[in-house]
Amino acid sequence: MARRLDAKTAIVFGAGASAVAAPEGCVSNGFATAVTFAEHGARVVAVDRDEAALRGTYQAITAAGGDCTPVVADVTDGAQVAAAIARAVDVHGRLDIVHNNVGVTRLGGPTELSEEDWTSTFDINVTSVFRACRHAIPHLAERGGAIINVSSLASIRWTGYPYPAYSASKAAVNQLTQSLALQYADRGIRVNAILPGLIHTPLIYQQLAGEHGDAEAMRAERDASSPTGRMGSAWDVANAALFLASDEAAYINGVALPVDGGLHAKAA
Ligand SMILES: NC(=O)c1ccc[n+]([C@@H]2O[C@H](COP(=O)([O-])OP(=O)(O)OC[C@H]3O[C@@H](n4cnc5c(N)ncnc54)[C@H](O)[C@@H]3O)[C@@H](O)[C@H]2O)c1
């Protein structure tokens, strides 16, 4: 298979290999994307606030002969985000791809959620994207590049969970994506979003199973809710990210691409 990101430098925020107990083969979106980018020749700068999780990603990439620079940073801290991007440019002399994958779900509507939780959800899910773009765009503008923002199907549809802070913050990610796509199109920077649907990642065991009470039932319910009869995997999301990051997507800009087995088209 042709390597589609040869000679490119990619920074992946939220690239850690999740330590959450999950079934064999169930990996997080950021991990799968970092591994896939590296398999396709990218020099990957893997960023996560969780050092142990980053170690897992580093080991997976380097064991397969890939190039990975792990950087511990919290996307809610502008100075740490700036330092992570500066590190990528210092080590590799260029930056081509920025993948913004960090996101958290907080269950609860206005009467359950505290104002602090609402605000921090927006900080982690949307302002983090603003921070990464703020520091990365000057480097991307040197020779063009791609920004991929991981949104969610929940940004455009009710997906069965009461988490308006998540949905609204991801909707903001979509609009931020479009705005930047148009603002920087003539500088050779493409900005696209991925809207994963029901994906089988460790996150769902940590953040949703508790609410549901029964992880297996939650898993079966999510499989059944997917038009294909199964949830997507992190590799499905990673393959979409690979395409959007690659030159094959050179004329694709400002899209919000569902990766959901068709769930977005379903009305009943
Ligand atoms: N799993 C799904 O079904 C699903 C569906 C739609 C969208 N998504 C989106 O996909 C993305 C990744 O989801 P996932 O399931 O792989 O999640 P995950 O929690 O497994 O992975 C996210 C990574 O981000 C890191 N992280 C969290 N907060 C951070 C911070 N403040 N700074 C730096 N790193 C931080 C975590 O340590 C983790 O390694 C999220 O944006 C999520 O909203 C997931």
Structural notes for this entry:
The chain has a single domain, classed as Rossmann fold (3-Layer(aba) Sandwich), CATH 3.40.50. It is 46% helix and 16% strand. The protein has 9 helices and 9 strands. The strands form 2 sheets. Strands 3-2-1-4-5-6-9 form a 7-stranded parallel β-sheet, sandwiched between helices. Strand 1 (9-13), helix 1 and strand 2 (43-48) form a beta-alpha-beta unit. The model has no long low-confidence stretch (mean pLDDT 95). Residues 14, 16, 18, 28-30, 48-50, 53, 74-76, 101-103, 124, 150, 152, 196, 198-199, 201-204 line the site of nicotinamide-adenine-dinucleotide.
Biggest beta sheet attributes: 7 strands, parallel
Low-confidence stretches: none
Question: How many structural domains?
Answer: 1
What is the CATH domain class?
Alpha Beta
Computed over alpha carbons, the radius of gyration is: 17 Å
Using the alpha-carbon principal axes, give the shape.
globular
Q: Would you give the CATH topology?
A: Rossmann fold
Q: Kindly, what is the distance between the CA atoms of the first and last residues, rounded to a whole number of angstroms?
A: 39 Å
CATH superfamily caption: NAD(P)-binding Rossmann-like Domain
Count of helices? 9
What is the CATH architecture descriptor? 3-Layer(aba) Sandwich
List the helices and strands and how they pair.
Blueprint: E1 9-13, H1 29-39, E2 43-48, H2 51-63, E3 67-72, H3 78-92, E4 97-100, H4 115-143, E5 145-150, H5 164-184, E6 189-196, E7 199-200, H6 202-207, H7 209-212, H8 215-225, E8 232-233, H9 234-245, E9 256-259
Parallel strand pairs: 1-2, 1-4, 2-3, 4-5, 5-6, 6-9, 7-8
Helix pairs in contact: 1-9, 3-4, 4-5
Bound molecules: nicotinamide-adenine-dinucleotide (NAD).
Nicotinamide-adenine-dinucleotide (NAD) binds at residues 14, 16, 18, 28-30, 48-50, 53, 74-76, 101-103, 124, 150, 152, 196, 198-199, 201-204.
